[in-house]
């Protein structure tokens, strides 16, 4: 008998999406501690920074230092968000493995967030693709050739500024991003408006356009549907999800859209369903101490942190580990 659980990737985005949404600036030393604690818990995908002007987002002013620390872990996949070509060039110089570009489907949100229309962002995205390809051709480090470019489609499920986002617009932007060279399409519930039925419909809509490049979802829990929407996405074949420790996060240009899906609650749900996240839940919960030390008084969220891990779940986890160990001995 062996462990054949299906893998689901959980990307910790709190260091970027979580911290950009609070007024205080987390000192770099605590970001390093956060990376260390997350890695010790088994987190192997982290979005740790964004490359934007420090005057606009002082929370991300230490992006180079934070990325440099994350890269000390050889098997940690390090991601940065960039809004333009200059940001992409800085991210490439920093050595990240994945670059996410936010491409809003809502024109109103796009103008507020990046001061470009969706069409202009697609043009910028194509320039990022060219920059990545050029860097790969001239790189002495072979890993540089494997930088993934992710089209992070935002306001896919609705927009607090524009209102409803037509499905045809979602399909058009997804198609344009694929044509501009996206390696991955990720769907973002930027304003926390997604509903389970809508999630299923849009996944199938975008899959018809993007095929297997549609791989990830970035969900918020603003209206308490984050995990329900995740469940629907799982049923529709998605196996990569963003989440934020203690549910930190939101979008500065999406009023009221606070609260990314909580990493601890997401991992608990996935593990309880038999998926393999590679993340130790006990150590993940303990990593919240970094936030309480660095951001005293900041609201932290999470049902699991409040109620604890059910005894039967902990027992089942130990039993699975014992079975796995015995099977290795017998092989």
Outline the fold blueprint.
Layout: E1 9-12, H1 14-18, H2 28-40, E2 45-50, H3 63-70, E3 77-81, H4 85-94, E4 98-104, H5 107-114, H6 118-137, E5 148-154, H7 167-179, E6 184-188, H8 196-210, E7 214-218, H9 226-235, E8 240-243, H10 263-272, H11 281-286, H12 288-294, H13 303-307, H14 311-330
Helix pairs in contact: 2-3, 2-12, 4-6, 7-8, 8-9
Quick summary of this structure?
This protein has 331 residues and is α/β, with parallel strands linked by helices. Helices cover 45% and strands 13% of the residues.
Describe this structure in words.
By secondary structure, the protein is of the alpha/beta class. The chain has one domain: TIM Barrel, CATH 3.20.20. 45% of the residues lie in helices and 13% in strands. The protein contains 14 helices and 8 strands. Strands 1-8-7-6-5-4-3-2 form an 8-stranded parallel beta sheet. Strand 2, helix 3 and strand 3 form a beta-alpha-beta unit. Helix 2 packs parallel to helix 3, helix 2 packs antiparallel against helix 12 and helix 7 packs parallel to helix 8. The radius of gyration is 19 Å and the shape is globular.
Main beta sheet strand tally, sense and closure: 8 strands, parallel
Q: State the shape.
A: globular
**How far apart are the first and last residues' alpha carbons, in Å?**
9 Å
Mean pLDDT: 91
Number of strands: 8
Strand order of the largest sheet: 1-8-7-6-5-4-3-2
CATH top level is Alpha Beta
Percent of residues in β-strands: 5-15%
Annotation field: number of helices: 14
The CATH level-2 architecture is identified as: Alpha-Beta Barrel
Strand/helix succession: EHHEHEHEHHEHEHEHEHHHHH
How helical, in percent, are the residues? Answer: 40-55%
List segments where confidence is low: pLDDT < 50 over at least 5 consecutive residues. Answer: 321-331
């Amino acid at each position: 008998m062996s462990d054949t659980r299906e893998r689901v990737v959980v990307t910790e985005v709190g260091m970027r999406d979580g911290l950009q949404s609070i007024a205080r600036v987390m000192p770099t030393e605590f970001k390093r501690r956060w990376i260390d604690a997350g890695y010790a818990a088994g987190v192997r995908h982290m979005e740790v920074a964004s490359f934007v002007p420090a005057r606009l987002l002082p929370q991300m002013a230490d992006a180079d230092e934070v990325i440099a620390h994350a890269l000390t872990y050889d098997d940690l996949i390090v991601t940065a968000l960039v809004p333009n070509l200059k940001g992409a060039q800085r991210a490439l110089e920093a050595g990240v493995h994945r670059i996410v570009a936010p491409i809003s489907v809502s024109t109103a949100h796009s103008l507020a967030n990046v001061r470009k229309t969706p069409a202009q962002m697609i043009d910028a995205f194509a320039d990022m693709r060219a920059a990545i390809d050029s860097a790969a051709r001239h790189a002495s480090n072979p890993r540089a050739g494997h930088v993934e470019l992710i089209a992070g489609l935002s306001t896919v499920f609705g927009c607090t500024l524009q209102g409803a986002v037509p499905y045809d617009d979602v399909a058009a932007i997804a198609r344009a991003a694929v044509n501009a060279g996206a390696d991955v399409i990720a769907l973002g519930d930027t304003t926390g408006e997604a509903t389970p039925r809508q999630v299923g419909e849009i996944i199938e809509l975008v899959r018809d356009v993007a095929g297997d490049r549609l791989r990830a979802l970035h969900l918020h829990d603003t209206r308490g549907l984050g995990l329900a929407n995740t469940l629907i996405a799982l049923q529709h074949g998605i196996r990569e999800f963003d989440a934020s420790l203690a549910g930190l996060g939101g979008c500065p240009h999406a009023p009221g859209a606070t609260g990314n899906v909580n990493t601890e609650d997401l991992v608990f749900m996935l593990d309880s369903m038999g998926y393999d996240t590679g993340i130790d839940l006990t150590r993940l919960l303990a990593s919240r101490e970094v936030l309480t030390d660095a951001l005293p008084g900041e609201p932290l969220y999470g049902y699991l942190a409040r109620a604890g891990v059910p005894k039967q779940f902990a027992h089942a986890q130990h039993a699975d580990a014992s079975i796995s160990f015995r099977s290795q001995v017998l092989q």
